[in-house]
Design a protein that fits this description.
The chain is mainly α and 331 residues long. The protein contains eleven helices and no strands. α5 packs across α6 and α5 crosses α7. The relative contact order is 0.14.
Amino acid sequence: MLEASQKWSIGRFYGQAWKLAWQHKVLWILGMAVVLYASGSYRANTFSRPAQNSTQPQKVSALILSPSSLPAASAPPTAKDSPFVDAARQAATHVHPAVYVLLFIEITAFVIAVLVFRFVLLGWSKSALIIGVHTAAEKKTINLTEIARAAMQRIRPMIFLNLVPVLLLLAIALIVAIAFFLIAAVAKILIIPLVLVYLIGAVYLVFRLGSALIYAERYCALEKFSGKTALEKGDELAKGNLWKSGRLAILNWIVGLISQVLVTVLFLGAFVLPFGFLWIYLKSPLIVLLVPLAVIILMFALWVSAFWKVFTYAAWHFAFRYLDDKKRVAA
């Protein structure tokens, strides 16, 4: 519970979060899951060198220098000259329109299934990390099996929190944008004031909704509230502490950006530059030695992102506990 002498301190939250994230390394697994399911996947950069034809410049120069070598005038080649294009066109004309409808339905169903599967995994991984951080903060033994089972029960409300508020925000933004353009078309002199009001309102909604969702996810995972109830509780907590929550969110974003920049610089310095030098200038077979290095760097980048995710979740946990305890004491 909240001690009377304690005040809101991001520095204290960060110190507690760093200690928790470093000492409980098993949480890195859950952090890695959140990173992968939230961002899709980590993809290695691919580099390719266009094929070169050493004889092409000579042929071009010969044609330019020798007018007599120019070929006889002929019609420019068209797509129908290609047998592959002709075959594809003929095949398309013999396909029944119902096949295209069926193909569209299958692709749509596949996309929907992938999105649903992703939201399920994202809801589970977020719940698991929140429960794991809470368990570590309470100085209890972390059991990944028990955490996974507890997180499975919170998937449905977490999907609600990850989907419905975002759709609501997009709908509000669309309505406001339409109203903005209608008003601007009637009275152009109001464009600048409307833009300022729109930007201020957008920033306020983003911070308000973002903070509310962060707290709502913790109410959902730890207090086992429904998605709607958790969102109401989270918004109530965020509304009275928007400035505090906004500062913590901005600082977390800066810390995350710095960590990603450092990883990018490391990747460029340790892999991309040697790759380019060996391949472009030396044509050296030693380039194969960079493949294990690239794997190591990508794994390091994934670890940094996972550690940062655990760290930020822990910082938000301590901030949430502080504000929630303060609210309970005041009540």
